[in-house]
Amino acid sequence: MTKAKVHFFWLVLYLAVSSCKKEEAAIIATDNRYYLAIPGNMPPWVDDVDNPLTNDGVKLGRLLFYDKRLSGNNQLSCASCHQQALAFSDGMRINDSGVSKQKLHRHTPTLFNLLWTNKGLFWDGGSTNLESQAFGPLTSMDEMGQDLYELEFELKAVPEYRQLFDKAFENGITSANVVKALAQFQRTLVSANSRYDKFKRNEGIQLSVLEMEGMKVMEQKCKSCHAGELFTDNDFHNNGIDFSYNDDLEGIYLGRFRVTLNPLDMGSFKTPTLRNVMLTAPYMHDGRFGSIDEVLDHYAHGIRPSLTVDKRLYQNNGQLGIPLSSTEKSAIKAFLNALSDEEFISNKKISNPY
Hints:
With 354 residues, the chain is mainly alpha-helical. It is built from 14 helices and 2 strands.
């Protein structure tokens, strides 16, 4: 090979490599994927195929979540009933701050670690994903009372929103993209930095003797439903809070049966997580218990028998209830406090951007 041909060969090779590097750099520069950091003690997760997390989508969803324009009277945002300081719950037994000012019929659930929720949302699992779920509170007159066409019109009048929607979605501002953005933001609400988590990950935190005893009692007597690192099986159970279940108000008191029409699901409601549970009183699907003490008393000696009450609530002798001594109750409460995630409720990256 002549010297000229050698020089030509290296020039072609250089240009080819240079071109590849520029292409790689362009891919990296335009990569809009949102990289969600999940602590090592939490379960693996799979991004939503139809609505994957993107930086633009999450940013837009956060703005929408805290924007009162999403309500029909422009006085309520999603955050009005899902407050970060309360682990995105509302602290009320039954909320009545909606557009109609009528009391709701179910207690407001928390909004965190939802990217692992795979068996349905709402207390009865009536919604299959976060996107479809959002349409419920958005359009309900007892909640945000918004007309979706009016919402699109309002958002299109805001230049910043027009730009953000165009960046996040190919077809810009639509009600479908509103709920997609909201869902993306909510999937980033991961709570996994409590004292318990840091103890589990060997990050220099030790639990007290009482907290350790509480963890042991929980594993023995509560883990069948409040399972794994999520502290919920994401399933539905009849935990014996009522003797019978009427079909008033389109059957919302029937529990999971309202969705499946399976008689075995009568009176079954979604297992809430125990993470941040000391921040999210009151408890149960109707908020009837105002304190953890009332909840523990219910499981110890207040369970009401019915044909569908969960079999796990029966003792070996056939008696209903989970025996708990006063010492065990104190230990459980100590451990539940160790599940409170102070970093999560003060995280500025998910707080009100306004």
